[in-house]
Amino acid sequence: MATKNIKVLGIDTSCDDTCVALLRIGDGKLEILSNIVSSQVKLHARYGGVYPLLAKREHQSNLPLVFKKAVKGECFDLIGVTAGPGLEPCLWQGINFAQELAVKLKKPLIPVNHIEAHIVANLINNKLTAIRFPAVCLVVSGGHTQLFLMRKIGKYKLIGETRDDAAGECLDKVARILGLGYPGGPVIAEYAAKDKGSICLKLPRPMIGQKNYDFSFSGLKTAVLYKVRKEKTKNKKYIQAMCAEVQQAVVDVLIHKTIRAAKAFGARSIILGGGVAANNELRRQFTSNIKRSVPAVKFLVPAKIFCTDNGSMIALTAFYHRGKIFKKIKANGLLSISKN
Ligand code: KG4
Ligand code: ZN
């Protein structure tokens, strides 16, 4: 069915990035008019993780500027804002800003679930019809590691999730143990890529053999901590080897469980999303494993800039939920996207 072009604004302040994007969507096509991300990474690096009240203050001062830069005085028809999950003080900055804008400009406002947006991000650089259903979706970010069975946009069933730390959180904590700074994922990937394989370290692959779709990553972080404490020569080679092994342990578990879920549920697509999906090894090894063990399954992963938090994924998700009426928007009020 043809849809007339509409312009959608997307706002995300769920964690440490202030994100605003403007999309033009219609007739099965999407055009990114702007996608601005103001990162607070340098600020939080001092604390080795995100400091929520500092992040909230930064969103408060950055959001009007990021909005101006993204919109450049253009008009738009619909506003989407992340309502959760996320850091509550940060979420309210985006929600309050979007609500004031919606009232002032008399535009509809759609609260967006951040996890669903990480899944929908797969359509930003793709045809809007790219997903073949049913799809198995793996969302791997700093706050979440969840597997969903997706029947269509808006219809998801949670089939597994982490019982403790998220995959990205584990990488962030390991980077801290190794003194590599924040965020951990990209720096661990960088060190791992330089590993020559001369030091053999073996870490566990938690829950890999269990016949469920759940994950656990806190034991992996603890295993790194014990090994590092015992090691006397923590030179560059050792750090590179540890980074390669911890990254491989995370990749092994994520791929194994996702492909097993795809087989069990007869998935026609496997979809990734979230910051950890920007990882080169995860992308490369997913591609080759799918080709080898489930070749008929289509593999989708967003471009790297749309794996980490961004406003475009919020705008596109809002587009799919347009027309719905939301009386009251609450931070973390849309905590679950799991529907049978
Ligand atoms: O989706 P995201 O930007 O924010 C959340 O919703 O949490 O994900 C951030 C997470 C952090 O844990 C970060 O270390 C991880 O994604 N990350 C990566 C890479 N880039 C970001 N992990 C592995 N490899 C990367 N290249
Ligand atoms: Zn995210």
Tell me the layout of helices and strands.
Blueprint: E1 6-12, E2 17-26, E3 29-39, H1 41-45, H2 52-71, E4 78-84, H3 88-105, E5 109-113, H4 114-120, E6 135-140, E7 145-152, E8 155-161, H5 167-177, H6 184-193, H7 218-230, H8 236-264, E9 269-273, H9 280-293, E10 298-300, H10 311-320
Parallel strand pairs: 1-4, 4-5, 6-9, 9-10
Antiparallel strand pairs: 1-2, 2-3, 6-7, 7-8
The site of 5'-O-[(R)-(carboxyoxy)(hydroxy)phosphoryl]adenosine has 19 residues, from helix 5 and helix 6.
How does this model look, in words?
By secondary structure, the protein is α/β, with parallel strands linked by helices. The protein has two domains: 6-124 and 306-320, ATPase, nucleotide binding domain (Nucleotidyltransferase, domain 5); 135-301, Nucleotidyltransferase, domain 5 (2-Layer Sandwich), CATH 3.30.420.40. The chain has helices at residues 41-45, 52-71, 88-105, 114-120, 167-177, 184-193, 218-230, 236-264, 280-293, 311-320, and strands spanning 6-12, 17-26, 29-39, 78-84, 109-113, 135-140, 145-152, 155-161, 269-273, 298-300. Strand 6 and strand 7 form a beta hairpin. The chain is globular. The mean pLDDT is 94. Bound molecules: 5'-O-[(R)-(carboxyoxy)(hydroxy)phosphoryl]adenosine and zinc ion. Zinc ion (ZN) binds next to helix 4.
Tell me how many strands there are: 10
Beginning-to-end CA distance, first to last residue: 26 Å
Order of strands in the sheet with the most strands? 3-2-1-4-5
Low-confidence stretches: none
Order of helices and strands: EEEHHEHEHEEEHHHHEHEH
User: How much beta, percentage-wise?
Assistant: 15-25%
Q: What do the pLDDT scores average to?
A: 94
Largest sheet: 5 strands, mixed
In total, how many domains does the architecture comprise?
Answer: 2
The CATH topology of the largest domain is given as: Nucleotidyltransferase, domain 5
CATH class of the largest domain: Alpha Beta
Number of helix segments? 10
Ions, cofactors and other bound molecules: 5'-O-[(R)-(carboxyoxy)(hydroxy)phosphoryl]adenosine, zinc ion
The CATH architecture of the largest domain can be given as: 2-Layer Sandwich
